[in-house]
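Before relying on records like the one below, remember that each one covers exactly one chain. Contacts with other chains, cofactors or solvent are not represented anywhere in the record.
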Amino acid sequence: MSTNETPEGARWLLLIHQLPAKPAYARVKIWRRLKGLGAVTVKNSVYALPANAETQEDFAWLVKEIAELGGEAFVVEAALVDGLSDGDVQALFDAARDEDYAAVATTARELAGTGVTHTELATQVARLRRQLDEIVAIDFFGADGREPAEGLVTGLEAGLHREGDAVSATETKATPHPLPNILKDRLWVTRQGVQVDRIASAWLIRRFIDAGARFKFVAGAGYLPQQGELRFDMFEGEFTHQGDRCTFEVLVAHAGLADPALDAIGEIIHDIDLKDDKYGREEVAGVRSLIAGIASSSADDTQRLARGAVLLDDLYNSFADRQGSRK
């Protein structure tokens, strides 16, 4: 959502949680995750996000993390009736993003006046661009600070391009390991309303793991699997988030797919899905926007997978070409 108009009759997701006093790092971890999601505080231990499929999924995973840390949490969808208006909540989001944009603008101005080498400057500008892209991704209402920050970063990039671009390195593609028959011709089950991790995981399954895969989309809560079904990116699924790895990464590791192009895609999917900037991939913003476009243009999950497969095929081929190993 990117509009400066106050949402009328908006629906909000409210995460209400409680964490134990120890371990101390748990509070820091959850705070960082909330910040990465773009959530704002509306009351002590109550955080808000605009209600949509993606933010609901983000909060659902966070509830799971909080429980694993020994805490308690639940999410409610609500319409504000009295005491706090939709405009008040939007103002909280805009203020938070304006603060983020101001930090980017300050750094950009400082970089413009430094005398570092071209290579050092290129590295710092690329990092700043990733930071800006991450802020834009959680700028739900189009805060005013985006335009000046975008202009400053774009100006730095233009200066670098005039001086010349850096050369990227290449890698060698490895051959995937053969998979056991247990993962062949299976019915793969996931939650309805597929988003980035599920779209990418389904593509990975069909192209590299199970060419005969069939997909079934179900309500996430309370689904009891039928005999022979394999669940992915679902709570208690056979293949789902493990530790700080998204489902795509878990599937790659389980299948023994030693392929640098898949590793690169996994890093992109991880950064989009978990929003922790673990890998800092420069492709994140573009891929995020494309998949969001796929999701918003169709509510049909089969169509989303089909369109996502085209995107991911092209992305995979691009990485393979850079490595000089595409056949």
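Residues 244 and 274 are 8 Å apart (CA to CA).
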